[in-house]
């Protein structure tokens, strides 16, 4: 039987059918699998099923001489050295398409949470402060319909976010790496998205070019009181610069992703009231997670049988262009 490593703890109902097909080694620790253990387990494995918590570096792949397929339960592949995988002839599968709506929903959720101050109001009530009846000026927010929202990246999730924003009646600005026209959207240079928007929402993949796309100077150019929403990757944002803007009370933020995950328990974000924090749950609905696992298993099985992956992140491995 071919050997397959699973670098995260998956529910038994997913794993049991795999045991009939492969010799399985599954990491069941609560913490991310240590790189040395992963290297050791992969030394004679042909397949790897992983997720964002396992960085798959060149040195991990170097030790895995028989590895043919890496299947990640995520659409993002920034935790995997794709070039090294391609050089080593390892195909990398991912899960595009199925988490678009869940992630766009969460981006809108963060926008409304901030503009209508939902977490703040919830904390206020629980602390027993609601001693008066209806008050005309209690916890006033702003209307999404009055807002200009800037969308950075018009891939499937960016476009799904645009569809939702249109329904809310927002004015929509957007930037995309390649020129794209979308009804009801004003396409503008990246700097303008930041300088003109009440809310900026990030929907671009993390690459060398997009690292810190929300840079110190772009954050500084945002209007006072504006909000940054990040459901993409932590490294899209210069977190230190954002922290300074938040601590000064100049900007607000809704963040589902962070430079370091899990967010350290003493991180200064945790003591600020003008940031809504979520633990990387953009795709966390039962049906989306099932669809992601299903897609990841299709990729794994194809790779283990020497077939082309249906959802391949490095088609160059088959001599195709990206
Ligand atoms: C989630 O962040 C993903 O890339 O699937």
Notable characteristics:
single chain; Rossmann fold; 2 domains; 7-stranded parallel sheet; 11 helices; 12 strands; binds glyoxylic acid
β-strand number: 12
Cα gyration radius (Å) = 22 Å
Instruction: Kindly report the name of the CATH homologous superfamily of the largest domain.
Output: NAD(P)-binding Rossmann-like Domain
Shape: globular
Number of helices: 11
**Helix and strand pattern:** EHEHEHEHEHHEHEEHEHEHEEH
Bound molecules: glyoxylic acid
**The number of domains:** 2
Strand content: 5-15%
> In the CATH hierarchy, what is the architecture of the largest domain at level 2?
3-Layer(aba) Sandwich
Largest sheet: 7 strands, parallel
Instruction: Please state the structural category.
Output: alpha/beta
| Overall residue-averaged pLDDT value | 96
**Low-confidence parts:** none
Main sheet: which strands, in order across? 8-7-6-9-10-11-12
The CATH topology of the largest domain turns out to be: Rossmann fold
Please report the first level of CATH classification, the CATH class of the largest domain.
Alpha Beta
Distance between the termini: 32 Å
């Amino acid at each position: 039987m071919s050997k397959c490593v699973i670098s995260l703890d998956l529910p038994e109902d997913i794993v049991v059918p795999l045991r009939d097909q492969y010799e399985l080694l599954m990491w069941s620790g609560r913490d991310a699998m240590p790189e040395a253990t992963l290297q050791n387990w992969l030394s004679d494995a042909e397949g790897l099923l992983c997720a964002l918590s396992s960085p798959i570096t060149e040195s991990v792949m170097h030790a895995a001489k028989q590895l043919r397929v890496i299947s990640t339960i995520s659409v993002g592949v920034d935790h995997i050295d794709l070039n090294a995988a391609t050089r080593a002839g390892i195909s990398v599968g991912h899960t595009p398409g199925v988490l678009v709506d869940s992630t766009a929903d969460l981006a809108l959720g963060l926008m409304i949470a901030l503009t209508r101050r939902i977490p703040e109001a919830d904390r206020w009530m629980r602390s027993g402060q609601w001693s008066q009846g209806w008050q005309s000026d209690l916890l006033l927010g702003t209307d999404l319909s009055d807002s200009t929202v800037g969308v950075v990246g018009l891939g499937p999730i960016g476009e799904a976010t645009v569809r939702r924003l249109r329904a809310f009646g927002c004015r929509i600005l957007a930037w995309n790496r390649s020129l794209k026209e979308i009804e009801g959207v004003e396409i503008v240079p990246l700097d303008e998205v930041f300088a003109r928007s009440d809310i900026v929402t990030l929907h671009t993949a993390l690459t060398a070019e997009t690292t810190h796309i929300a840079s110190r100077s772009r954050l500084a150019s945002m209007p006072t009181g504006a909000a940054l929403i990040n459901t993409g990757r932590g490294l899209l944002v210069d977190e230190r610069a954002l922290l300074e803007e938040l601590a000064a009370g100049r900007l607000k933020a809704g963040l589902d992703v962070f430079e370091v995950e899990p967010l350290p328990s003493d991180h200064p974000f945790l003591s600020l009231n003008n940031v809504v924090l979520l633990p990387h749950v953009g795709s966390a609905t039962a049906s989306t997670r099932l669809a992601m696992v299903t897609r990841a298993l299709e990729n794994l099985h194809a790779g283990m049988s020497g077939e082309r992956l249906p959802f391949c992140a490095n088609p160059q491995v088959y001599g195709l262009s990206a």
